[in-house]
Specification:
Helices cover 39% and strands 14% of the residues. It is α/β, with parallel strands linked by helices. Helix 5 packs across helix 6.
Length: 433
Amino acid sequence: MKITVIALGKIGLPLAVQFASKGHQVTGVDVQQSVVDSVNAGKEPFPGEYRLEELLQEAREAGNITATTDYAEAIPGADAIVLVVPLFVNDDTWEPDFGWMDAATRSLAEHLTPGTLISYETTLPVGTTRNRWKPMIEEISGLKEGEDFHLVFSPERVLTGRVFEDLRRYPKLVGGLSEEGTKKAIEFYEAVLDFDDRPDLAPEKNGVWDMGSAEAAEMAKLAETTYRDVNIGLANQFAKFAESKGIDVFKVIAASNSQPYSHIHLPGIAVGGHCIPVYPRLYLHTDPDATIVRTAREANMTMPAHAVALAKDAIGGSLSGKKVIVLGASYRGKVKETAFSGVFPTVSLLEAEGAEVFVHDPMFTADELKKFGFTAAEEGQSADVLIIQADHPEYKEFGPDTFAGVKAIVDGRNVTDANKWPGVERRVIGAAG
């Protein structure tokens, strides 16, 4: 097949490489010339994705993948087009910003030829595929969906750093606007993906699953991620209450989860990443009455402030003039990614308290941290307070010899060892102070 992948980001490029690894001819489209140049040179444009550069080089050597910025080169004659263009959400209104996706959709529609399957993999509010993309593509292309081309929604369900593994592990969900479109999408994904055996899914088998409609596929992706945000919100509520009563919430959660009907997640200083903080807002876009979803999202957004309050308590009052090091710019451990990371509100809140704030992260250079507006911390420097924001494994080994003069620690991820910090006031979110 001739396949076009639009947007060669941290999901799109691994997808393109996966398709090419199955022997198909793949053209990737990206607005950044630097990304296109890297792909055509067989070099990954961003670090951290397991086996990406190795598989990209193999695909380039086989002549199965190329990249361009030109839609006119990539779209005509394609058997299938897969879009993984970012969808943003306004921080103030929580409304989706379709700007980039609208632009990509218009560009592909201008060059669309009959007989093409179009699959959107970017997470969308329910109804977007049918009510936004279908009329837009039909109007611009002059072609009719269901006759001249087929349109489906098939959400990406992978995490950066382990995309190739997750593509095999999880069922591929497909929802079309017509029975024929769904059939073609199933045939397409069965031709480009491999699936691990999953006896735990019985009586279903791992593979491509027909969701029955685009709306069901859209909701499935929103539901699985919104569930996590709501669950973490509940865990954070439990954590705050446990702290006030001198209870270790981690023991409570372990005890609760020891029977099969409880699956309580872990509390923490922040919920970050491209997915969990964003997709509940996309769900609320079409279900504004979902009070549980809204409350959980708002509760999770209070956790950086809670961590700063714990720091003030641990230090014995004001943070004004105190040297505070936030450990972790990444939104989660071992990932070089800051999307919606708790580092941003935590640093802002500390600065508002008058603290002198530094940021440490083993995955970022001092110059990279500076670009975010942070002052980089160096191991060996002095600090009054440490706040653990990301659960990088290095932080488990830190002790008084790492940063001098530490008087208080707020562990937002429950990763530090109290025995390594004798005489230091230590607060763990969800544990007794």
